[in-house]
Amino acid sequence: MAEAHQAVAFQFTVTPDGIDLQLGRDALRHLYLSGLIACRKRLITLKSSVLSGVYPASPSTWFAVVAVTLGSLYGKVDVSLGLITKISSLLPAKSVLTPVSRTVVSAVIFSSGVWVSGILLYRQVLRMLLSYHGWMFEPHGKRSLKTKLWAGCMKVMARRQPMLYSFQMSLPRLPVPRLEDTIDRYLQSVHSLMDEEKFNNMKTLAYDFQKDLGRKLQKYLHLKSWWATNYVSDWWEEYIYLRGRGPIMVNSNYYAMDFLTVCPTTNQAARAGNAIHAMLLYRRKLERGLIPPVMALGIVPMCSYQMERMFNTTRIPGVETDTLQHLVESRHVCVYHKGRFYRLCLYDDRTLLSPRQLQTQIQQILDDPSPPQPGEEKLAALTAGDRWFDKSFSLIVFSNGKLGLNAEHSWADAPIVGHLWEFMLATDCFELGYTEKGNCKGDSGLSLSPPYRLQWDIPAKCREVIERSYFTAKTLADDVDFNCLRFTDFGKGLIKKCRSSPDAFLQISLQLAHYRDKGHFCLTYEASMTRLFREGRTETVRACTKESCDFVRAMEDPNETKEKRLALYRAAAERHQLMYRLAMTGKGIDRHLFCLYLVSKYLGTESPFLQQVLSEPWRLSTSQTPQQQLKMFDLEEFPDHISAGGGFGPVADDGYGVSYIFAGENVITLHISSKFSSPETNSHRFGQRICQSMRDLAELLSVPPRGER
Which of 346, 383, 472, 474 has the smallest set of CB atoms within 10 Å of its CB? Predict the structure, then answer.
């Protein structure tokens, strides 16, 4: 019925006089509504951009400045010190405007200039304040006078409630690190991973590069940093993500999981209805800039530019490089169920469908008995082979009501999607809710047209390509050795009581576990962020350091004393925190070397040093999942409503991918991935080694497990 209704809405015939176009009333109505909504969205976006662009001022402050200026002229006090008179003399059309009108126009121009100048001055002062990072390198609870004064100034500067993009123009640019510093830090990071002969060779390559080619490449990077918003991010997006020609499922994409122990309903359609509606509420807030920016310490804003492409974004495949297409508006979602595709409209005219209406629509899809069309069942595999993974993210709703999410990586990093995910889960449970029978609340919306079943004409040759792509994707997926475990002996609460950083504690535990698992150390990648800078994305923390290696060897030496082990642990933890802080403040190693390598390729020069650096495999890739970016509910009051976090696949074929989340104060959830095809790895074995390593560190730091306290 719906297909027939759509078919008669638009008709055309070719006649001797040309094309006879006939539009049905419904088609005209939809065209009108689409244009109206697009225009309305542009106005909302414009309003949001204006309000963010003039922060901390507002249109009302402009009126106030104009009123004060005009009032002073009425009282015969020239606050402009003669500038209004000067502007009046320069105005054209003297025969048109009366002297009074010219004075008023001049006063408005002067007031606008003062108002804009105040905004620009504010941005410059705030940018200078945000360029100070000394607060990151001071011990917790021991702030210097300089930092206290800085914090006071920041509180004054950001006292007005900001919109999502209010601070974007005030964020400092990512600085290009000194070449000498990067080379020295790199050599320190690999010293413990190489024998003496190999390290000496690498040191020779590094210093030769530093003295000659490196200086030339560094000048080009400085030049780029002067005109580009961020000297790394555009190259990182293009060459690391969009130019990748292999499958990005498992190799690049990442995932998020539902609540760890709670499932608010087992009704699949109801959970989908609430989740989709909550995400659309988030999109509405995002478009209007009503989501406050993430603030470190509550006063330092993080860059928000990655959030712009969260919705309405598709990765378009290309021969050599893909592109990202971002649309102004999207009024439907694509639903896949049992090999069939449906277009699910999200609006009834201009009104967003309620959760219960969405549940009814989705239930109709679940109840549809029709089989897939020829070639349709595995059609989605086209995006999972050597091509691309097209949507910015995909929501998965399981038959038991559990949720999952798969995100494409090029447009944003995991904390950005995590922000949406936290909002959706909290809104689902604490705002929308369900009836006693597990259904969404509200009217069922039975009068709505059913979802539109997509029609396909897939040629035989295309089906062969689909089968090959499906085989590639299935082979890749079947090779993933995945282990998600919950560690409940203790959590970050007790780790912090031992005067240790939870992240450093876990990273050192990973080094100990990996050494016990493989008998040697390896290059370790820990993801950090550079969102303290405009358009910042990520940086690498090289978590395997000389200090951590010394500590691991001491732990494995039965003759070593506890006091020596404890001292070595403190040194390793301090070194790790220093490396993390350097990465966050734009003094990391790997993005700098990556950009130097790209410049060398653009110039057609070869660098043995850079080739060696970028060919080194990351056999242990790690990341911490952020928790409670949004304070939408109290975890102490609802301890069961903790997220399981998310994870990613291994970077190296013979390596591990480890994601972890400190879920509340007493639980650590680990996501461990490797490949069955590697005889060296086993995710469940490695998981047990990590847990034992954490217990051993707890014993060393005198933190008894929960059962022994």
Answer: 474
